[in-house]
């Protein structure tokens, strides 16, 4: 008798708390590893000098915006797969995975081609030093060549997460981080006569190598179908109705991500007007913020999977319990971190800039401002995950647009330009925005009636 194929994890029954923890921990660790991946590039490129670091730093936001444009369909596919997982419709999960993989791959080819040829124009807009310009363009072009591989693995990760299989992607990412640690110096500095030194572009070559390997492993697993999802590329035929649905759900996700990226640019422009000290303080606070929200993002993604599966299973009470528990965990854990960071703000800042008392003091002020609202940030991230899991991606998009462009940037601009607060007005915009947006999200969750309308639709 043929052995039963592994079907992933069923989170439509059993302990919700255990399910959230089981899903969250590997997701959190994976996010930490992906952060380490970028830090590895920065570390080795830093051995080449400040202009090399500047070249890579300028390229990252452009690459992220391109990724944001393409990730919407991948996330939409994972939402639908999770809902069909809850409905135990494994044939439909395989169909969704195949459609998502092919659609995202061809879209990534388009983005990579556009990005490759526009790289000189995109970097030239920034009006930077000629040496930095050359390195940035070269790094960006090579990075765009590897973009389709990055997207293939993104689809694999999303699909595995939708069926509750989160450990396998973690092991793959862990392996590629270790490999990147070795490949970076080899391609950047070269090795005897075997590998010529490539400088800044060497880091991009190393990334392509690890992305190609991860994509190949992910594709192999999906084709073999032994981990809960089996794709069949030989019999691929576009499902127009499904693709239309995924695009409709995915566009708000892409808009949400791009608006976040542009919002970061806008805030940097505001801070830059206050000088180097302000920019350094903002940089330190931003790094801390990007690291501290990793646990909340892991919990948010876990919530998305659980909500999706239980909606597919037609279990509204379990959906409500999942969201309530996840919100409480996020608020409690993130508030705890907020208290610690508020108390030790100066010590944390001193770790990054030990010999600059003025920068330490200003960085500590910014850290204290954002630490006050860590708990509300946790609430907001979980809410976004919950709405996504339910397929309500427009709500997540509107919350982000409201947060970044209706509240934070206008508030920061007004307080810093038209009040005596100055730079402190920018710092103050962060907690005010986080608290107001989180409360608005809770109000939408409380007033919205989709939870009472859930039924087993698949």
Task: Describe this structure as you would to a colleague.
- It is a single chain.
- This protein is an all-alpha fold.
- It has two domains: 19-238, no CATH class; 251-458, no CATH class.
- The chain is built from 16 helices and no strands.
Topology:
Layout: H1 16-45, H2 50-86, H3 90-124, H4 130-145, H5 147-162, H6 167-189, H7 200-224, H8 240-272, H9 276-292, H10 294-312, H11 316-343, H12 345-352, H13 357-371, H14 374-389, H15 393-418, H16 423-447
What is the residue-averaged pLDDT? 89
Multimeric state: single chain
Bulk shape: globular
pLDDT < 50 stretches: none
Taking the sheet with the most strands, its summary is: none
Please compute the radius of gyration using only Cα atoms. Answer: 22 Å
Count of DSSP-assigned helices:
16
- How many independent structural domains? 2
- Which structural class best describes the helix and strand composition? mainly alpha
Write the element-wise H/E pattern from the N-terminal end onward: HHHHHHHHHHHHHHHH
Residue share in β-strands:
under 5%
What attributes does this structure have?
458 residues; mainly alpha
In brief:
By secondary structure, this protein is mainly α. Helix content is 81%, strand content 0%.
